[in-house]
């Protein structure tokens, strides 16, 4: 029999699945929200019947001996543990809701796999430690064979933080935190205080808003009282003090009637305290290796991530494309593979984030033959055509190749634009994305040209680091320079991002600027597009000018 491994992310939010073959190679990894077009897909099973069916049937059609081992990303159902949920920071009802969803999903995940593949599914499912899944998924794409790996998360089986050592063969936990102290919960609390929704995953907005504010000493002193770090481990403050502190902090809470910019100082102060706490944790482990792997939901804090190399003795930092819970299906699948391959090392240095669905060719043919739209077929390898369009101010949604695994669009499901016009940011926010104008857009640039534009040079493959621009950037590419003169940059190497790399180079030939604006191909509140129909819908319902789907270019007139 040929054994395949199906990893399922079972947190109750951000479900996903990953399929790994008998050699430990990832065949596909994708978040359920993409298929459902439901942001974060709360409460959905990760093996959604219609989403997973075509992938399993394709394997069975080509491998008559296929059998499948299912693995889940939690060892236990949290609701079964005798832990009372606190309402000191986040509302108790939210905590109970999340715990109940985790119980439902952890218990029932895999039933659709059994329905699809029947007796090819091995009867005993495997359950792996949540943070072990995070760490294993991060190692898969790590470019080095030794590192200390920090998981900073909202929660885990017993605590929110874990530290592992990766030696090129095995991944061994050296400590974990216990109890409710959590940097993830800290940031969720900040998100709610700023007037955003942690359920909707609006922590991004806090980071964007923070650039418009100033650190307020009074707010900082209050926030410092919520979480402390002891021996590198986050700890919740004493409960009675928490109630008093939260009562004071709620005096700064955003009111719906106010301009959101009134919360900018709160956001800036919260980001400042988060950085203090995270730096204390990193300081406690910085002597363990010159390489750092950072993962867990907190690893999405790109504003902090961009400061790590300046403030700690690490020589390199790796953050995977999907550090949050959607990435855990990959970790569970790899751990299941390793469970049967005890004599082999964990796979690593698998750089490509393009692990998701491809464009459905039947849908593309229908678009070409029956839509009535004016279609131009281009040579996809000739990037001059698209570079010219971008230089003329055309905003283009791109859908080509396999989709990215993780929350960020890295070129295959992206909206691309010219970063030079001063009004491009406002234009995209207003007529395409429908989102707030304080939120920045990301720049993409070939790695070898980064030194001309950014004060700090480091690989930023998955858009995980926010770095300072050099002084003249705002005059040249104002649409991708944030209020605090930073950019959440994606660097490109020719091997793994060849089309996008060549497009930037061609744009440079035309304009003298090797940088493009990159944002996810979606509208506010919706996941990144999944189907041809999703892409067409965005084209026709927003101010997007054009789309490129594989080699099919469609421009509105």
TrEMBL record:
Lineage, top ranks: Bacteria, Pseudomonadati, Campylobacterota, Epsilonproteobacteria, Campylobacterales
GO molecular function: transferase activity
Protein keywords: Transferase
Family: Belongs to the NodU/CmcH family.
Pfam family name, one: Carbam_trans_N
Species per Swiss-Prot/TrEMBL record: Malaciobacter mytili LMG 24559
Domain (Carbamoyltransferase) ranges: 6-334
Protein name, UniProt field: Carbamoyl transferase
InterPro entries tied to this protein: ATPase_NBD, Carbam_trans_C, Carbam_trans_C_sf, Carbtransf_dom, NodU/CmcH_Carbamoyltrnsfr
SUPFAM superfamilies: Actin-like ATPase domain
Carbamoyltransferase C-terminal domain segment(s): 387-556
Residues forming coiled coils: none
